């Protein structure tokens, strides 16, 4: 019994040692990873809801402008500059190199100022940022995008009718505003006319009163000082 049990115990100990060895553990770990890689469902995938990092149009525009500027400056190299003004270069190479450096600095500054002025006058920073926002908003929109139906008349109507309806609503609203303004102006004109009529009536009444007063004064003067008193 003891001799029969000894090989069994020895095999059990050997199996445990083999399984517990670092090499075997690495193999098992590698096998688990391989099985996970072969089964895509078992691997943790990154969340699709996380927004992808998109490029910024303003930064991209600045980068493109800067790269274009550098390429343009490279074309104005000293060799080309010297070959264009070879007689001056032969007389004084150091002076020509100094002139070229100053020319490059002035050219770079002028182009950068023009680009900055273009961005400022065209409000490109605001417009490109708004374009980025519109793109992000379009991604969040779950409604299906418009697709042609194959019938040109229906496609044109479906595309133009909402635009014309918006224009019609806008024109109706503007018409109401203009009509309200015209009504207010008409009321002001009518009030001005009524005020003018009242002013004319007051003036006419004042003139009549003045004429009456003058007539009474003349009659009173003639009664107090008759003409025959002054006859000699």
Give me the secondary-structure topology.
Blueprint (H helix, E strand, L loop, with lengths): L1 H19 L1 H17 L18 H19 L2 H7 L1 H6 L1 H30 L1 H17 L11 H73 L8
Protein name: Polyamine-modulated factor 1
Pfam families: Nnf1 (PF03980)
Keywords: Cell cycle, Cell division, Centromere, Chromosome, Kinetochore, Mitosis, Nucleus
> What is the end-to-end distance?
191 Å
**Mean pLDDT metric:** 75
Give Rg in angstroms: 50 Å
What portion of residues is helical?
over 70%
Structural class: mainly alpha
Poorly predicted runs: 1-53
Count every beta strand, where a strand is a DSSP E run of 2 or more residues. Answer: 0
Count helical runs: 8
| Order of secondary-structure elements | HHHHHHHH
Shape: elongated
Taken as a percent bin, the fraction of beta residues is under 5%
Oligomer: single chain
Largest sheet, strands/sense/barrel: none
Summary?
One of its GO terms (biological process) is cell division. By secondary structure, the protein is an all-alpha fold.
Describe this structure as you would to a colleague:
This protein has a domain of 84 residues. The chain is built from 8 helices and no strands. The N terminus is likely disordered. It is mostly helical. The chain is elongated and about 120 Å long. It starts with a helix and ends in an 8-residue tail after the last helix.
Which descriptors apply to this entry?
232 residues; mainly alpha; 8 helices; 81% helix; elongated; disordered N terminus; cell division; chromosome; Polyamine-modulated factor 1; cell cycle; mitosis
